[in-house]
Design goal:
This protein is 55% helix and 14% strand. Strands 2-3-1-4-5 form a five-stranded parallel β-sheet, with helices on both faces. The structure holds adenosine-5'-triphosphate (ATP), (3R,4S,5R)-3,4,5-trihydroxycyclohex-1-ENE-1-carboxylic acid and magnesium ion. The site of magnesium ion has 5 residues, from helix 1. Its cofactor is Mg(2+).
Length: 173
């Protein structure tokens, strides 16, 4: 495979988990956009938000997406909010196959309950926040995606199998 795969979706959809497994199956390099942003700055994402605000984080995220999407044969887990930027959407859509891991706010709520590394979920009512983010972003994920996978009750390895099947019947790969 030389066509890169870009995973998009909300926090907890499984982009990092599925992306790592998918990259192994495709013998491609795995890149996690959040991880790369943190590595460049030397601090974690909540600290970047504290110091530079969300806008500073988004600038760094866009740079990361622009840089890595130029490489062929990668699987990239993008940050949950990467699709908010129209330039990011265009870049992802043109440079690879975009897969939307689509999940209900309730599923995302369950999956994000043990992790405190997501600044946008540091609120009292996490489910309401996830519903708002879902309503706001779902149209962008759908706009940018070539492939949409519903990930509700599906294990990560099943999701990988579904993506591989969809890629096999996709003209771009
Ligand atoms: N298909 C799945 N079934 C059940 N649990 C899953 C599945 N995929 C991921 N998980 C679990 O859900 C949690 C969130 O997954 P992950 O960190 O991969 O999401 P993400 O989309 O990368 O989120 P973020 O945008 O915040 O980085 C993890 O605990 C992971 O083990
Ligand atoms: O949905 C979002 O806006 C975010 C998702 C995470 O992947 C990180 O990129 C960060 O916590 C912001
Ligand atoms: Mg992730």
């Amino acid at each position: 495979m030389s066509q890169s795969v870009f995973l998009v979706g909300l926090m907890g959809a499984g982009k990092t988990t599925v992306g790592r497994l998918l990259a192994k199956r495709l013998q491609a390099r795995f890149v996690d956009s959040d991880h790369e942003v943190a590595a460049v700055t030397g601090v974690n994402i909540p600290t970047i938000f504290d110091i530079e605000g969300e806008a500073g984080f988004r600038r760094r995220e866009s740079e990361t997406i622009q840089r890595f999407s130029q490489e062929g044969n990668i699987v990239m887990a993008t940050g949950g909010g990467a699709v908010l930027d129209p330039d990011n959407r265009q870049c992802l859509r043109n440079r690879g196959t975009v897969v939307y891991l689509s999940a209900s706010p309730e599923t995302l709520y369950e999956r994000t309950r043990r992790d405190s590394g997501r600044p946008l979920l540091q609120v009292k009512d996490r489910l309401t926040r996830l519903r708002e983010l879902h309503q706001q972003r779902d149209p962008f994920y759908r706009e940018v995606a070539h492939i949409i996978i519903e990930v509700g009750r599906t294990s990560a390895s099943q999701v990988v199998r579904q993506i591989l099947a969809a890629l096999a019947s996709d003209a771009r790969t």
